[in-house]
Write a structure and sequence with these properties.
CATH architecture of the domain at 40-245: Alpha-Beta Barrel
Largest sheet: 11 strands, mixed
Low-confidence stretches: 1-20, 570-577
Helix content: 10-25%
Mean pLDDT: 88
Strand content: 35-45%
Number of helices: 10
Number of strands: 40
Structural class: alpha+beta
């Protein structure tokens, strides 16, 4: 954090005092097909803030009752993350936020006489890179992976100062190769200077250095004391552009915890998004500092956050990571500033509109080419903090909404059809409408679910207990007693792993309607999987289909999920070749009768003609009695199957049967 005299920020914010009670604004036109930058998120720093309480964490990160910030900037100490920032990183991750870190000071940094900043010598670069890589590995193991690590905070002014050439050397020859080898999922923020002038100096050197440029996935800048400039070459090179620190510039008139400061901050956010095209935006500090005026999200005195947090929530809770900013009329009338976003599936369009006028504004909006189904306003003003208003049904692409005075309003336009309450098919199985109709549950595990390129992506950073600790589910499916169903889906993973499928009761005790939970071996190739079952339980008008992914941290993708009624399976009895054993198929159940010899350990393998195992079991006859094994065949396609039984390691029986549909 630095102290400067600000000018350009405040000059852009005009508060209009009109005599009329309402201002009629010009129409804002939204071009949903003219895409700008992808949103990574909105965040703040928890440096020097202690460990957040659960209440504070919910106010910051929760997307239902809090501001829904999606990023957390943590301070990296010379030996890695300290206890407080480790706790904060875990807390933010558990609430779905992306965590990244900045070092103020380095391991082995030297403070030379007469200087107010540290110097890191090249001989210590590798040890510092190893320290950062070890920290990233540790945080990933704790379930709070660091998305990115910055090369250094405000490197042109200190805390630890690097020349332009030294920073390029540090990133290109040490930090980049070390993270690529030891923590390849952790990205590097190549440059994070204090202001636009330092940024341009370092950027010129990085562009000329192939290694520094290659390893820098993100370029970042603080907004002291002026707005950032656009850099379209970053997007063309596959890099992101982040704003990572700023505070309300008006610090000479005492603390302002209300809408005056909030509206100044909203203009800074607006300009960074619509002029500089940043992918991410951060306020400086969470901590309630003393004598720093408007430098923090929390006030100097008092336990509740300022309006600055809630106006950030007008963006962060609704323009979620992965949303795209689209072309729009950014200033439809004096004192009104608008930014527009959409998801890739076009199930939602989000407008964030700041009205700095002392009057209400009748704001007309036109979204050519589509007809939203409904709109939901969310208001932050002097008396409301992200208060969700009643949804309004609409049937035209043109809409007018009255903006409260001194407010920031989010208009969430819903383009998708409602999910039918009861249906006999999966809704939105191809994810064309984003996540609509689907619920992603984590029960003790840490994972994120999102729609990426029309597929449902599950990214897992920590496991809970059991497969169902991480699951994608959809309820509301009618399952009728006595009928048979086929579940089909496409899936693949970033590495080989298993996935569990289930059809079950939607409420406790979540009774499974399958005789055996279905397990699938996923590979890195997108493959179609299926299973069938017969509903023997009573008819359920709110059944649910689930995909349980808690067996591995390997990420996976799902697509084209369906359930449909099929004819009941039939089968013919197999032929035994060893007396004392028998294979019987009754309807959908396979029963294998085993020998009576006490102390015998049996291994049973059911395979298809190509030798692929489809069912296995291990049993032991601890009593001198007839032993049997039963398996549900509903999930298997029609065809010939082989049964083999081994006793104490030696083959004693085999049979085959034909399964018909």
């Amino acid at each position: 954090m630095r102290t400067f005299t600000f000018s350009r920020f405040v000059a852009g914010l005009v508060v209009v005092a009109a005599f009329a009670s309402q201002i009629d604004a010009g129409t804002a036109t939204i071009d949903i097909n003219n895409w700008h930058q992808k949103i990574r998120g909105f965040g703040l720093s928890t440096a020097w803030s202690g460990t957040m309480t659960p209440t504070e964490a919910d106010q910051i990160w929760d997307t239902i009752n809090g501001a829904g910030l999606s990023m957390n900037r943590v301070m990296i100490d010379p030996n890695g993350l300290g206890p407080d920032e480790t706790n904060n990183a875990v807390s933010a991750t558990n609430r779905g936020a992306l965590v990244w870190g900045t070092p103020w000071f380095t391991k082995n940094g030297v403070r030379l006489p007469g200087r107010d900043y540290d110097t890191l010598y090249q001989k210590d670069y590798q040890e510092w890179a190893d320290t950062l890589a070890s920290m990233a590995i540790k945080m990933k193991a704790m379930g709070a992976p660091l998305y990115a690590i910055s090369s250094g905070n405000e490197i042109e002014l200190g805390w630890t100062m690097y020349s332009e050439a030294a920073l390029a050397l540090w990133v290109g020859k040490y930090l980049g190769p070390t993270l690529a080898a030891k923590s390849p999922d952790t990205k590097i923020i190549g440059i994070e200077p204090c202001n636009i002038w330092g940024f341009e100096r370092y950027l010129k050197v990085f562009k000329a250095d192939p290694d520094a440029w290659k390893y820098s996935s993100i370029m970042a800048q603080h907004e002291y004391p002026t707005v950032m400039d656009p850099h379209p070459e970053f997007k063309a090179a596959g890099k992101e552009y982040w704003e990572t620190e700023v505070y309300d510039p008006q610090t000479d008139q005492g603390e302002d915890i209300g809408m005056g400061s909030a509206l100044r901050v909203s203009k800074i956010i607006h300009d960074a998004l619509t002029y500089a095209d940043v992918n991410a935006w951060h306020y400086w500090w969470k901590h309630a500092c003393t004598n720093c005026a408007n430098g923090a999200i929390w006030p100097e005195v008092g336990g509740q956050p300022t309006k600055r947090l809630w106006i950030m929530g007008n963006w962060s809770r609704y323009a979620r990571p992965g949303f795209i900013r689209v072309e729009a009329t950014v200033e439809p009338t004096t004192g009104v500033y608008l930014s527009a976003f959409r998801d890739t599936a076009l199930s939602k369009v989000v407008l964030v509109i700041a009205n700095s006028n002392n009057n209400t504004v009748a704001q007309s909006v036109s979204i050519p080419g589509i007809t939203p189904r409904k709109v939901t306003p969310v208001i932050t003003d002097p008396t409301r903090d992200l208060v969700v208003q009643a949804s309004q049904d609409i049937s035209t692409s043109d809409f007018t909404y009255t903006l409260p005075s001194q407010s920031v309003t989010t208009l969430v336009f819903d383009m998708s059809l409602p999910v039918p309450a009861q249906r006999d098919t999966v809704f939105n199985g191809g994810f064309d409408q984003g996540t609509k109709g689907w619920n992603f549950n984590t029960w003790g595990g840490t994972a994120q679910g999102s729609v990426v390129n029309g597929e449902y992506k599950i990214a897992i950073s920590a496991l809970g207990t059991g497969n169902a600790s991480i699951q994608l589910v959809q309820n509301g499916i009618i399952l009728q007693q006595g009928k048979s169903y086929e579940v089909k889906f496409d899936a693949y993973a970033s590495a080989n792993r298993t996935l569990e499928g289930n059809v079950e009761l939607d409420v406790s005790p979540w009774t499974s309607y399958l005789t055996t939970l279905q397990n699938f071996d996923l590979t890195t190739t997108k493959t179609t999987y299926s299973y069938t079952f017969t509903m023997t339980n009573a008819t359920d008008s709110n059944g649910r289909i689930s995909f349980n992914a808690g067996a591995s941290t390997t990420g996976l993708f799902l697509d084209n999920i369906s359930i449909k009624e099929v004819s009941a399976p039939t089968a013919v009895r197999g032929l035994a070749v060893q007396p004392g054993f028998a294979t019987v198929v009754r309807g959908r159940l396979l029963e294998v009768s085993l020998g009576r010899v006490q102390g015998t350990s049996y291994s049973i393998v059911l395979s298809n003609p190509s030798g692929k195992r489809v069912r296995t079991a291990n049993l032991r006859n601890d009593k001198q009695s007839q032993l049997s094994w039963t398996s549900d065949l509903s999930g298997l396609p029609a065809g010939v199957y082989l049964v083999r039984v081994d006793a104490n390691g030696s083959s004693v029986y085999h049979s085959k049967f034909y399964l018909a549909r």
